[in-house]
Structure formats: structure tokens, C-alpha cells
TrEMBL record:
Residues 201-310 form the DNA mismatch repair protein S5 domain. Belongs to the DNA mismatch repair MutL/HexB family. The keyword DNA damage applies. This is DNA mismatch repair protein MutL.
Length: 314
């Protein structure tokens, strides 16, 4: 394994949250209904993601940790549509190159599972192992072989804060899936699965004050907004999703704040649009996006926000 490979891996894997994200995306792709994430020291020491998804067939597991061996992309149209969440076919290989990796998996076609261990991109060891249906991926000692990179990790608390935020965002994006997050052996967040999005928002924001909702469409964008108006606060907290993916976007924020009434409180914004209206590939590991018709999106969000502001007046 060359230094170049490790550095390439560092492009995909920046910090513990990148690992958590990639593993959760794989679990979602596998059709899981329950995903549990456990970290020790904010993921600096250990990250475990366990799911009840379809599992990895025994003969496929060694391939799954090889770069580009099993990309879900079969054509360039796929790349544009991004039908599945994972699409670069290099997440596991990248994680394997910069950590001590342990994967146990079993499909519902097999009576026993398979167990793979790998250190710093070295040759994988594969054994048979009894385990339940689904996949458990454990990533220990991230960047143990890339000390310069390890120095850039933040404190356990700061890394945990990012992980918590992203697990919460995934739980809002996938209300039908149950998510559990544990830190240093203690459960710190949990959703039940099989619920509506607003139920997940309640578990995140609390029942009170009431959560208002509105939806509408403009041009190619259809938008649903949820607002928990907190009259005392001026802070505007926005969680936005485009076609199911969490995004950071200035247009949406600006549109929410553009009305006359103050928009303080918690906002969630769900945007659906044909895939070619949005470029999510600006950077594979980042959450910025480009909208082809940003003006329409602005108007759709502004109108929805304005209608709710009106309704919430005394
Ligand atoms: P990609 O997701 O782009 O295909 P990854 O490196 O993330 O690439 O994963 C490689 C392959 O390993 C996947 O294509 C999938 O076949 C398999 N895999 C990884 N994680 C899981 C999981 N949790 N459940 C089932 N299969 C998985
Ligand atoms: Mg993937």
C-alpha cells in the first residue's frame, strides 16, 4: 500500500463523521430498517455501524473493500441521477486504507456469516463467523497510519457533536428507519422508525411549541416547510434536504429570512426536484449544491415561509 493511496483515501475520509456518513449510506442502500451507530471518543478511537439490511454475500466481501470494485454506478446516467446514495465505490476501500477495519456480515441466504479484518489497507483476513442477518462495520484507530492527518482531528466532544448532528439529519431524511446513536456506551439519540417526518422533528425539537407546516411548488421545485416558531428567539436554525440529501444552501436560508415577520426558531425544508435541476456533485464529501433555477427555489421557499408567518400571527 502506497502513501499515495493513503492520501487519496484522505480525500474521501476527512474525519470520523465522513466514516459515519459513508457507513450509514451503505446501510440505507442495503434496505435497512434499523441502523445503530456507536462511537468511542467521538469516533477517534472506534466507530461501529450495525444494520439489519441485506448483508454482503461471502464471496463479495473481499471485493467490497477494493477500490472501485463494486461501484453502484453502471452508466453515466446513473451518475447524474444518483439513484443510490453511495456511488463512488471507494468508501470502504478508503476507510480500510486508513484504519483497522472489521466487517461482519450475513445475508438471509446464508446460515453463517463472514468476517473480514484489515489493517491500514493490508491484505484482508477472511473467516466464517456466526452473526445475525445484516452488516456490522467497525472502524478503529482512524488515521493510525497517517499521523499528520490524525493531528487534524478535533476533540472527542467536537467530533461527537458533528456525528450527532448528522445522525439526527439522517433520521429526519429517513423517518421510516430507526436510528440509534451511542457514545462511550451511552445511548444519546434514538428514533423509532416507521413514523412521519414531523414525528421525528418532534423528537428532535420537542412537542412544544407547535410545528407549523406548508408546502408548495414553483418551477421544477416542490417544497415542504416545517417551522417551530419560537417567539423569544431570533436564531434561525435551518435543516434543508434536496431529494433526500442534506444540503447547506444560502438560497433557502435567505428565502426563509426574507419576509417581514421575524423567522426565529427551527426550520426544516424538504425539496424535491428532477435530478438534473440540482448539481450535488460539486464535491463528493461536501454538502453544497448548485440549483439550475435558484430563483424559483427562492420564491417557493419564501412563499411557503410567508404563508406560515401569516398563520402564526396572534
Ligand atoms: P459503494 O457504496 O459506492 O458501492 P462502498 O465502498 O461504500 O461503495 O461499498 C462497497 C460495496 O460493499 C457496496 O457496493 C455494497 O455492495 C457492499 N456494502 C457495503 N456496506 C454494506 C452494507 N451495510 N450492507 C450491504 N452491503 C454493503
Ligand atoms: Mg457506499
Amino acid at each position: 500500500q502506497t502513501v499515495a493511496m493513503r492520501i487519496a483515501a484522505g480525500e474521501v475520509v476527512e474525519r470520523p463523521i465522513s466514516v459515519v456518513k459513508e457507513l450509514m449510506e451503505n446501510s440505507l442502500d442495503a434496505g435497512s430498517s434499523r441502523i445503530s451507530v456507536s462511537v468511542i471518543q467521538g469516533g477517534r478511537l472506534s466507530i461501529v455501524v450495525e444494520d439489519d439490511g441485506c448483508g454482503i454475500p461471502r464471496e463479495d466481501l473481499p471485493l467490497a473493500v477494493e477500490r472501485h470494485a463494486t461501484s453502484k454506478i453502471s452508466s453515466i446516467e446513473d451518475l447524474e441521477a444518483i439513484a443510490t446514495l453511495g456511488y463512488r465505490g471507494e468508501a470502504l476501500a478508503s476507510v480500510a486504507a486508513v484504519s483497522r477495519l472489521d466487517i461482519r456480515s450475513r445475508t438471509n441466504q446464508e446460515d453463517s456469516g463472514v468476517w473480514l479484518r484489515m489493517e491500514g489497507g493490508g491484505p484482508p483476513k477472511v473467516d466464517e463467523q456466526n452473526c445475525r442477518i445484516g452488516t456490522r462495520v467497525q472502524v478503529d484507530d482512524l488515521f493510525f497510519n497517517l499521523p499528520a492527518r490524525r493531528k487534524f482531528l478535533k476533540s472527542a466532544r467536537a467530533e461527537l457533536r458533528r456525528i450527532t448532528k448528522v445522525v439526527q439529519e439522517f433520521s429526519v431524511a429517513y423517518p421510516s428507519v430507526a436510528f440509534i446513536l451511542s457514545s462511550d456506551g451511552k445511548k444519546i439519540y434514538e428514533t423509532q422508525g416507521g413514523r412521519d417526518r414531523v414525528d421525528v422533528l418532534k423528537s428532535l425539537w420537542g412537542d412544544e411549541p407547535e410545528i407549523l407546516t406548508s408546502s408548495g411548488a414553483r418551477g421544477p421545485y416542490s417544497v415542504t416547510l416545517w417551522w417551530q416558531r419560537i417567539s423569544k428567539v431570533s436564531r434561525v436554525s435551518v435543516m434543508a434536504f434536496v431529494n433526500g440529501r442534506r444540503v447547506e444552501d444560502g438560497t433557502i436560508r435567505a428565502a426563509i429570512s426574507s419576509g417581514e415577520t421575524h423567522p426565529g426558531g427551527n426550520w426544516a425544508v424538504w425539496v424535491e426536484t428532477p435530478p438534473d435541476e440540482v448539481d450535488v456533485n460539486v464535491h463528493p464529501a461536501k454538502t453544497e449544491v448548485l440549483f439550475r433555477h435558484g430563483g424559483d427555489l427562492f420564491a417557493a421557499v419564501r412563499d411557503g415561509a410567508t404563508s406560515m408567518k401569516g398563520r402564526s400571527l396572534p
